[in-house]
């Protein structure tokens, strides 16, 4: 298996994988989305809420606020099901406090964490609007969770793969350039006076070029065992960390299967 990194930012990673099967690459995708742990607000203790927003709605909005945490801190935090406490404690949770008086808008930056290792990813997410003399006071408790339990714990905002496109021209091509004009993504060009592939990885295999060619001189297919994989996150988890953790989880699953089959 070969991996070639094409693009990497704090919230997005694109890479090409060669020499794998569809079941394998799909298993990685599903684990990235559903089994990699992420921190999100789970409990909200509402002490005062004079806003026109119901307590339950405000709590729901708090749960969807992306939280970023120091990787070392996350490693030391227990999953709720692994902790001996009844609901939450310092070993499996992080607390935020919020106290604000109107008029004005309460933003995610108003959530004050008990530790500098955890904070909202984006400080300007509006949570609730307070009128004159309105006041809100609460405690929000964040815990680790996985996407299969709730969308707020899903570490990826987008996680997908596609076959690596392959475009070829046959001898019937009369260089009419109709295929170039038909391509909606700028994959084809005519820099040499004849159609050529400029950016094959941007091809969505929509086959607009194939339909535009009366002679059937262009063939759009894919390379077997080669995929373009894209991971996007909301900034709470680095996309590379999501991939590495997903690979570790898949490896552990495979080892458990092997141990079971060997009668261990």
From TrEMBL:
It is an enzyme of class 2 (transferase). One of its GO terms (molecular function) is DNA binding. PROSITE patterns: 4FE4S_FER_1, 4FE4S_FER_2, RNA_POL_D_30KD. [3Fe-4S] cluster binds at residues 203, 206, 209. This is DNA-directed RNA polymerase subunit Rpo3. Binds 1 [3Fe-4S] cluster. Gene3D superfamilies: 3.30.70.3110, DNA-directed RNA polymerase, insert domain, RNA polymerase, RBP11-like subunit. GO terms for biological process: DNA-templated transcription. GO terms for cellular component: cytoplasm; DNA-directed RNA polymerase complex. Belongs to the archaeal Rpo3/eukaryotic RPB3 RNA polymerase subunit family. It holds the Pfam family RNA_pol_L. InterPro entries: 4Fe4S_Fe-S-bd, 4Fe4S_Fe_S_CS, DNA-dir_RNA_pol_30-40kDasu_CS, DNA-dir_RNA_pol_insert, DNA-dir_RNA_pol_RpoA/D/Rpb3, RBP11-like, RNAP_Rpo3/Rpb3/RPAC1, RNApol_insert_sf. The lineage of its organism: Archaea, Methanobacteriati, Methanobacteriota, Methanomada group, Methanobacteria. Its EC number is 2.7.7.6. Its main location: cytoplasm. Its cofactor is [3Fe-4S] cluster. Keywords: 3Fe-4S, Cytoplasm, DNA-directed RNA polymerase, Iron, Iron-sulfur, Metal-binding, Nucleotidyltransferase, Transcription, Transferase. DNA-dependent RNA polymerase (RNAP) catalyzes the transcription of DNA into RNA using the four ribonucleoside triphosphates as substrates. Part of the RNA polymerase complex. It is found in: Cytoplasm. Residues 163-188, 193-223 form the 4Fe-4S ferredoxin-type domain. It catalyses: RNA(n) + a ribonucleoside 5'-triphosphate = RNA(n+1) + diphosphate.
């Amino acid at each position: 298996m070969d991996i070639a990194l094409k693009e990497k930012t704090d919230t997005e990673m694109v890479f090409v994988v060669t020499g794998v099967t569809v079941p394998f690459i799909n298993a990685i995708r599903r684990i990235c989305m559903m089994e990699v742990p992420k921190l999100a607000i789970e409990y909200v203790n509402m002490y005062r809420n004079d806003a026109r927003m119901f307590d339950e709605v405000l709590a729901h909005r708090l749960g969807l606020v992306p939280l970023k945490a120091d990787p070392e801190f996350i490693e030391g935090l227990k999953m709720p099901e692994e902790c001996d406490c009844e609901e939450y404690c310092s070993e499996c949770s992080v607390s935020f406090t919020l106290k604000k008086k109107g008029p004005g808008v309460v933003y995610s930056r108003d959530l004050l964490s008990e530790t500098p290792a955890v904070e909202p990813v984006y400080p300007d997410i509006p949570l609730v609007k307070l009128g004159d003399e309105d006041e809100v006071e609460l405690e929000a408790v964040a815990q680790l969770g996985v996407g299969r339990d709730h969308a707020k714990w899903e570490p990826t905002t987008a996680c997908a793969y596609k076959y690596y496109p392959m475009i070829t021209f046959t001898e019937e091509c009369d260089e009419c350039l109709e295929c170039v004009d038909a391509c909606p993504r700028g994959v084809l060009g005519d820099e040499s006076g004849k159609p050529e592939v400029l950016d094959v990885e941007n091809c969505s295999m929509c086959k607009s070029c194939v339909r535009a060619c009366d002679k059937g001189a262009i063939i759009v297919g894919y390379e077997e065992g080669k995929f373009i994989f894209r991971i996007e996150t909301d900034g709470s988890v680095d996309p590379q960390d999501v991939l590495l953790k997903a690979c570790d989880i898949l490896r552990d699953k495979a080892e458990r299967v092997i141990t079971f089959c060997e009668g261990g």
